[in-house]
Amino acid sequence: MVDKKMDVITFGESMVLFNPDSKGPLRYIHTFTKALSGAESNVAIALARLEHKVGWFSKLGDDEFGRYIECFIRGEGVDISRVIKDEERSTGLLFKERFAHVNPNVYYYRRNSAASYLSPEDIDYEYIKNAKILHVTGITPALSESARETVTRVVDFAKENGVIFSFDPNIRLKLWSKEEAKPVILDLCKKADILFPGIDEAEMLLGIEDPREVIKTFHEMGPDIVALKLGKEGCMLSNRKEQHFVNGYTVKTMEDSVGAGDGFAAGFLSGMLRNKNLKECGEYANGVGAMATLVKGDVEGLPTYDQLLTFIDKKEYVDR
Amino acid sequence: MVDKKMDVITFGESMVLFNPDSKGPLRYIHTFTKALSGAESNVAIALARLEHKVGWFSKLGDDEFGRYIECFIRGEGVDISRVIKDEERSTGLLFKERFAHVNPNVYYYRRNSAASYLSPEDIDYEYIKNAKILHVTGITPALSESARETVTRVVDFAKENGVIFSFDPNIRLKLWSKEEAKPVILDLCKKADILFPGIDEAEMLLGIEDPREVIKTFHEMGPDIVALKLGKEGCMLSNRKEQHFVNGYTVKTMEDSVGAGDGFAAGFLSGMLRNKNLKECGEYANGVGAMATLVKGDVEGLPTYDQLLTFIDKKEYVDR
Amino acid sequence: MVDKKMDVITFGESMVLFNPDSKGPLRYIHTFTKALSGAESNVAIALARLEHKVGWFSKLGDDEFGRYIECFIRGEGVDISRVIKDEERSTGLLFKERFAHVNPNVYYYRRNSAASYLSPEDIDYEYIKNAKILHVTGITPALSESARETVTRVVDFAKENGVIFSFDPNIRLKLWSKEEAKPVILDLCKKADILFPGIDEAEMLLGIEDPREVIKTFHEMGPDIVALKLGKEGCMLSNRKEQHFVNGYTVKTMEDSVGAGDGFAAGFLSGMLRNKNLKECGEYANGVGAMATLVKGDVEGLPTYDQLLTFIDKKEYVDR
Amino acid sequence: MVDKKMDVITFGESMVLFNPDSKGPLRYIHTFTKALSGAESNVAIALARLEHKVGWFSKLGDDEFGRYIECFIRGEGVDISRVIKDEERSTGLLFKERFAHVNPNVYYYRRNSAASYLSPEDIDYEYIKNAKILHVTGITPALSESARETVTRVVDFAKENGVIFSFDPNIRLKLWSKEEAKPVILDLCKKADILFPGIDEAEMLLGIEDPREVIKTFHEMGPDIVALKLGKEGCMLSNRKEQHFVNGYTVKTMEDSVGAGDGFAAGFLSGMLRNKNLKECGEYANGVGAMATLVKGDVEGLPTYDQLLTFIDKKEYVDR
Amino acid sequence: MVDKKMDVITFGESMVLFNPDSKGPLRYIHTFTKALSGAESNVAIALARLEHKVGWFSKLGDDEFGRYIECFIRGEGVDISRVIKDEERSTGLLFKERFAHVNPNVYYYRRNSAASYLSPEDIDYEYIKNAKILHVTGITPALSESARETVTRVVDFAKENGVIFSFDPNIRLKLWSKEEAKPVILDLCKKADILFPGIDEAEMLLGIEDPREVIKTFHEMGPDIVALKLGKEGCMLSNRKEQHFVNGYTVKTMEDSVGAGDGFAAGFLSGMLRNKNLKECGEYANGVGAMATLVKGDVEGLPTYDQLLTFIDKKEYVDR
Amino acid sequence: MVDKKMDVITFGESMVLFNPDSKGPLRYIHTFTKALSGAESNVAIALARLEHKVGWFSKLGDDEFGRYIECFIRGEGVDISRVIKDEERSTGLLFKERFAHVNPNVYYYRRNSAASYLSPEDIDYEYIKNAKILHVTGITPALSESARETVTRVVDFAKENGVIFSFDPNIRLKLWSKEEAKPVILDLCKKADILFPGIDEAEMLLGIEDPREVIKTFHEMGPDIVALKLGKEGCMLSNRKEQHFVNGYTVKTMEDSVGAGDGFAAGFLSGMLRNKNLKECGEYANGVGAMATLVKGDVEGLPTYDQLLTFIDKKEYVDR
């Protein structure tokens, strides 16, 4: 890849996450523990831990929760020099509600958050130019009209300036309806150089269930690289020239499924930045994704490069 | 007083309060404990504990935080039969940030909360009719345009139907500007039968500092009873016929100043409902207000009637 | 069913439960968390959550633990207007000791508790008349001589006044011996209109193991409806006219087995109150019982009616 | 003093103490921390820490709470070889309720506890013989008839066998009435060789307020040594030959007043066992008593001999 | 066995263990809970709980952590009269880092700890003479040169004085290299009367994998009794005359594997002290070892003799 | 000042601090909370928060505690690019033991820590050149012989390269004796351009008590600027030309005195870097020092520049 100051730049809302101290309806929970949440900062932190130069930015409230997010992400070695402070709006929050038998509920307090006021004028376009790869998720255009415009502008600018555009659809139906989401996400899929759809998302977007068909259709739309996530099964990878199915991990002791997709994207990009072949990229992707789920929290389980290699080497670890 | 089903009805936003587990900037706080906050529900709970029949209502999110608020307030013996659930908006939250040397900061997550969508159509006017006293605070009209209208409509309806209107200005400059607040609050002061201004509020509203002048001016505006809060000094009471200064408590071991004003109003109203004379009403007001500050939390320190009498009797308790 | 003010009235001892913060012998446990425990209040809360009008009462100590129980149960929407306060005796307590490999130990501090002094004179018989169903468990007659007499008197009064008598044997050998328990429990079984025996209890009481035989024998004794609990297998239901076996749930992620039987009874009674057929009543019973075990605590996992229907619909939930 | 195996033997009920994690009514407290409480074990632990050979015993429930008490007290270096286990009754408990402005409330769960079944046949009289000093408090005879008899029998046996009898009246009106307590306590005062009354207790027992008169009257009754506790003022000591007033400590940072009297008795006895003069014994008594209040918990603040000497030497410590 | 004052004496470093309050990298852990750790004190406590007379000693820092260790171990009924205090060095510490998918990491802070300065002059040899059995582990010689010498001297002294020498190799490669460890451990194996090797250790020491060969080889070296641990499979026992394989337990709910080996040794020695036959000794060994893993912490799950017998009797317990 | 890349560079050991969850002897403390400690990183963080460009480095263990320190300090915006990892030694730790009546005890686990192996070869001398000011404390030369040499080499190099040398003696007698410390510290005082002695340290080093004499003597030794700390009284400042006494703050609600001296140095240097006059520098120094004590923890209370100016303006804050 071209030599640039930054390996990957990404942006999007990070929030303070409040985790209940035990399972069950929040009404009966007495104490909550503060943590960090945010798909794009998860990717950024994952990449920083894998020794890449990464930048992340967002608009944060000029409040203690915003300062917490800044300190946390900068502490992980991510460049946060382009973070913008909004003196009028607050930093977004989210509460998790955990159950033994179903997936966690999420309560968002992010409507009208600082990040949802992100607008094209907030962007330092020169900074974007400096990146080899721009990574964006489908959460950001769901935040607000201005956030959607910002995504469009930044993506177009990046592509015009030779920055590789990596896109994870990350469709969140709590933030917008299927009808609103579909055209926006499809438009971004078309522009993407690297695409990280989940198989369910692919079905929703394309109406196609068969992995090979999905990949073919996405290639026809635009992306040269498609990394299709198949859940525990693993992933299907294609770069027009070659295609691979890479087996996933059966994680018997999963602590927290959140962050797996972000880890997958980061693992894949790390492979690419290290000039690994497609299959190896997929192994990195599966590995980082699985490791993210082994520790509670979005980022706490993300591996260093050494830890990733050890893990990939010893698949039996997760089968205890 | 006339014989009615309910002694006091009040309404206004209650929120889930998150208390940090230690002092200092929230950025460094790991865990938070859930509690209840809300000026009007504080008054309602205080009155229920003093053995009166009280109703409180608000609009709550149809979520676990809303259910927590319902259970808590109903658990205290307050009638919550008129609470409205909003399926689209969330229950409001607030975070406290405590310091050893300055008053706590408050971070609100209540913009566009369910309660701020309270509107005149939400009200069961027959229910209001059933009350001897309607108690309102100046926080509710600060929440939104529709909340303001609701207050006007309910207050006017109550007055037309012979319900005594009790008003606590409770000016919160975090919610609206002095300029916005002043005319709205003054208008409600004029309509009030019983008024609970703080001396600072009086100065802001009237530009008058002298307690006797303040009381005189408020009487001229409308209220027959003015209970002017003078902080630790105590209070000055007037019912046009008689006027009393009642000494306050020097609480050396104050744990939490929040809720003192609400306790004051509840104590006073309890005295009135028990047909105590003006001075005794002031003693109840000072007593409940002081006791509210002796325990952390808005309502945890509120006394039963027996505890109040014991406390009033043994002023030395708080002077240890 | 006849139209009455209350759907179900129940009574019996509720206690403050202290849960250890980790597993293992209590001697090594540093902190304990306060919660609520009590078979009858579990049933009452379950029914209130399922939208029925329920009353519960007991004798509580005039102390903070008694007030906690009052606030909790009233907060859940149960009528507690007939609770009696005992100024001389304390509210009962219990401590749990949890292990990974065996069922929890229970340490009772309820001997001579306020509830064990419940006596026939404490009862507001007019209140009992107001109920469609009176629900009693076999724990109450085990508390004391006077509690036993109270049960007899209340049950007889209810039956004379056309109140349906629902009985859950709930034999606790920590409270009395098999010899003491058997005649008392059998006598109540005979009087019952609806009976909720467990298969083990049936064997102890009748010396019969075969479910069909058990049901036949109980019908001959008196009860028109027998809902026999078969553990994970499910339940066998009979109303003299029809008989059904309803499959249970395999809850792989059980958090707390306590409260399952109470949820079963509440689910069944809810079905009856909604005029569901026998089989549906059994499905409700199995559903509420299973859901009670999915969250730690006796009542924290009890569903609303909507949640129950969703759960019954998606049996796979519990099979994750 | 005569050479014997044990310096001091004492006996009486020790309980598991549950401390609320914050101040205020217990109803609102979520978590409690386990600790040890018991006047006689406090004295025993204080003496063990001051390097004396001490034995303590009681009757404990054969349960985890009893085992906790055993391990704790034995861990402190006290001989517990004569502890008796009761397989039928439970170990007693107590809950504290703390307030900022008044002394803590105490909720006992000790009625019918194992310790209240202590009876004369439980005693190993040979063991008593081995002690230089037998220390008893006025709590034990308040527990039950059989406990009272046990105290009488043990005290009489000790006196007949040349064991010095040290008595702390420790009148607890939560356990018995003034009328019940007075003759029993006075009888033990008469038998005592060393007496540790508080000035309020003296007034209750003798109807005398003047310290010098109190001491004179007690000497006439029997005790050769009277150590009269005057609260923060300090203490007045007399051994018929000499009389001293020893100044107390102004502890500005008192954490927990419980255990001060037990520390006082232990400090005094330690001085005697080290053959210090009367005034020094009083300084030790004041010192240990004050130090006990500097750390939360009954025994956590009790000093080693070195720490005591340092503390006595630097009175300014407590005046910060 | 010969009648002696003590059944077993053991010595070796005990440390304060800090347990993270949740799983994952320590960097993200906020709070840690204090506990006790130490192979030899585990054995001592296990034996004390099984009603044997046991002594344990080590060199501890003259600090609060040392005092914690003393109180804990003495509290369990172990004689600690020979513990030595080092005024210059600190008590050793260790931190655990727990993961869902791999065994815990351990961070030692024991280099130059007080215990590592244990030297032959510190020993009360008369005390050693008093024991029927001396139990030593291979951890102690790994601590330092002087600790190694101490082991040699004590072991030789014990053997000369008719004390049975029980040895658990307990090879910890975090403390020394395979090369350093092997000759020292082998030398102690040769001297041992009773030997508790794990099958992995046996392979490392002897280069032999077959259990029967391992046992034969060890017998040839010296030990009359070899109890070879085969993990979950169970153990192979031999006393030259007879040989038994004893099935292990499948513990589905293992909480903490640490302490299993110590429990095994203690169970075996308890059987011997009770004159049980070889097979029964193995059943006790397997039982205590399995029970140690059912509760978090090294010693919290160790059984009383009654609990052990119940457990052995009901193997199904652990198969829930 | 000359224009350079960095405003201040500092180096020295940072440790993980374990804070007990309550006061009293550590033996009785159950849980500890992790935090950061280190005089030089305190200064660096204080300066970063005051908007200066700061670098800090040390040698850390290649372990989770080292990674925690890195993340924390980098998160605060301090450049940590020159931190060195030691694969063989551990990161140092310290435990605090807090009392109500005396200053906290400190238990160090830093002997042979990674930082104590800091040596002259570890230094990037070009990096030092880039700083306007080099700040060093007297703790670093106390760590080890090689650390002492490193200090000498770095200080000499800095002075030769026109970097201002700022020195805080920070004499810790737990780390070395007065005899060892004195010549080393005095030598560094002589080399210092800016010196931050405490009045007690001055007395120890010079044998002089009078502040004016102290300042005169230090000036004669070398430093052009002497900022003499006088505790609560405030400070005495001198730059050969002018001399000022600046009043301190009476902090009635001090939470944690640790970090006050580091805040003082940072405040003073911040004033200098902003070209404030000597008196203003003193006001900043007093202000940051006082604010550091208002929140528990070394760095949690350190102000932003805005917060500092507000605080200085409203001295009454701290006198509540």
From TrEMBL, chains A, B, C, D, E, F:
Domain Carbohydrate kinase PfkB: 7-304
InterPro entries in the record: Carboh/pur_kinase_PfkB_CS, PfkB_Carbo_kinase, PfkB_dom, Ribokinase-like
Coiled-coil regions listed in the entry: none
Keyword Repressor: no
SUPFAM superfamilies: Ribokinase-like (SSF53613)
Signal sequence annotation: none
Superkingdom assignment: Bacteria
GO molecular function: ATP binding; kinase activity
Keywords assigned: ATP-binding, Kinase, Nucleotide-binding, Transferase
Family membership: Belongs to the carbohydrate kinase PfkB family.
Protein name: 2-dehydro-3-deoxygluconokinase
